DNA sequence: TAGATTGTTAATCGATTAACAATC
DNA sequence: TAGATTGTTAATCGATTAACAATC
């Protein structure tokens, strides 16, 4: 398994995008698509699409193109949407609650099993059938329930300590919403979501455009 | 202005990251830093740091390095944190409210001036001094208040129409939280935030790691 | 001055695009 | 079969890294 050629991050990041476009095609009732047609829809080259897909296998057929449903399912498998991950949310503030309510994640195999906070006013409250629990009970919960992923929505200053704590308890994936590049010495997969970075890039690009217009 | 060499998206996306690290250094009371030292902190090469910074000017000094406060301010200027943008949030569901409460954005010059929704139960409610208004009153509000940026937190199916509507009214930047690649025929800057894409990449990487471990 | 470190050019690496033989 | 379109190799392009003269 580990002998296979390494797939670049650039390709991996495009997979969910392919998955979305194929889902749209499926909804539109389109059963087959060529890399050329998909290319014009997605605004990337047909070459890139064929290269990307061929990292994982030959899903198409010469002279025909790709069967939409088949390709959709194959990319779904590659992304592991059929695997189930047990997820907890740490920090039930605005962002934590917003994510807890975002039921779409369940469709992709991310099963929310617990929410934790320190605020006594929040503890006991329910979000979509899940009770917000005290942070004190988290360690035990993680061990007993074999949690795969922790979504970190705690304040900036507490993030590194909490990350370390859950990683030591065996959590294998972290989805971090604090504006810091979380890194851990352990074998843990971390995805950093930097909303303020994204907004600042928007601001930069906006300024550039306005400058040029002047 | 438009004659200057084009700066690549790769560089632009790193700017907020530099800004964060410099902010940390400042907080730690560190007054000067070499590209080498910054490189080891950030986990990128010193070469890249010097190349990136030199896209915008020579901020350092041979034999000395960079003055942290000066560089922080310069990058802040490049990112336009001193410019003020008028922002509205469209859709006051979970994500909209979470973003409305995230007061950190104000620090970077993004001033929330309005929140809009269609839900009568939400209209009239206040979030941080801003009243949630009816979507019906949005067009007028945008024109009267010269809104720069709209944050789109509306359901998937309504996103393209709302985006088009605000773009026609002169909104120049869109921060889109719907899981679609929003594109518009107008001269509008769009930043797509694809939370579910990010989560699926985490899932993929997690699966890969678990496969190799077996 | 000597040492350190930048700014910048040149070399390398990796990712994207083009081309085309294979084949449905 | 003829036309279409893939899978894949080769060419190009752009981004990263290395090297080093300039200079504080």
Give the secondary structure arrangement, pairings included.
The structure is a homodimer of 214-residue chains.
Chain A: H1 9-27, E1 32-33, H2 35-42, H3 46-54, E2 66-67, H4 68-79, E3 85-90, H5 94-101, H6 104-107, E4 110-117, E5 126-127, E6 130-134, H7 138-145, E7 149-152, H8 159-168, E8 173-176, E9 189-192, H9 195-213
Parallel strand pairs in A: 3-4, 3-7, 4-6, 7-8, 8-9
Antiparallel strand pairs in A: 1-2, 5-6
The structure holds a DNA duplex (24 and 24 nucleotides).
Pfam families (chains A, B): CoA_binding (PF02629), Put_DNA-bind_N (PF06971)
GO molecular function (chains A, B): DNA binding; DNA-binding transcription factor activity
Protein name (chains A, B): Redox-sensing transcriptional repressor Rex
Please provide a written account of the structure:
Two copies of one chain form a homodimer. Chain A is α/β, with parallel strands linked by helices and 214 residues long. Chain A has two domains: 9-79, Arc Repressor Mutant, subunit A, CATH 1.10.10.10; 85-197, NAD(P)-binding Rossmann-like Domain (Rossmann fold, 3-Layer(aba) Sandwich). Chain A has nine helices and nine strands. Chain A has helices at 9-27, 35-42, 46-54, 68-79, 94-101, 104-107, 138-145, 159-168, 195-213; strands spanning 32-33, 66-67, 85-90, 110-117, 126-127, 130-134, 149-152, 173-176, 189-192. Chain A has a seven-stranded mixed beta sheet with strand order 5-6-4-3-7-8-9, with helices on both faces. In chain A, helix 1 (9-27) packs across helix 4 and helix 2 (35-42) packs across helix 3 (46-54). Chain A starts with 8 loop residues before the first helix and ends with a helix. In chain A, 37% of the residues are buried. Chains A and B meet through helix 1, helix 5 and helix 9 of A and helix 1, helix 5 and helix 9 of B. The structure holds a DNA duplex (24 and 24 nucleotides). Chains A, B: Modulates transcription in response to changes in cellular NADH/NAD(+) redox state.
């Amino acid at each position: 398994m580990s002998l296979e050629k390494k797939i670049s991050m650039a390709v991996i990041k495009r997979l969910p995008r392919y998955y979305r476009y194929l889902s749209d095609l499926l909804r539109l009732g389109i059963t087959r698509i060529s890399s050329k047609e998909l290319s014009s829809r997605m605004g990337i080259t047909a070459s890139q699409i064929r290269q990307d897909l061929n990292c994982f296998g030959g899903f198409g057929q010469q002279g025909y193109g790709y069967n939409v449903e088949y390709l959709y399912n194959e990319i779904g498998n590659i992304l592991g949407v059929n695997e189930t991950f047990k997820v907890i949310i740490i920090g039930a503030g605005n962002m934590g609650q917003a994510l807890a309510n975002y039921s779409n994640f369940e469709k992709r195999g991310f099963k929310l099993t617990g929410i934790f906070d320190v605020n006594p006013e929040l503890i006991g409250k329910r979000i979509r059938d899940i009770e917000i629990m005290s942070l004190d009970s988290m360690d035990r919960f993680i061990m007993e329930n074999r949690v795969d992923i922790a979504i970190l929505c705690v304040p900036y200053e507490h993030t590194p300590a909490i990350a370390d704590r859950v990683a030591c308890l065996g959590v294998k994936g972290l989805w971090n919403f604090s504006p810091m590049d979380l890194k851990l010495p352990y074998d843990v997969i971390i995805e950093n979501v930097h909303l303020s970075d994204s907004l600042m890039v928007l601001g930069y690009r906006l300024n550039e455009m306005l400058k040029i217009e002047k």
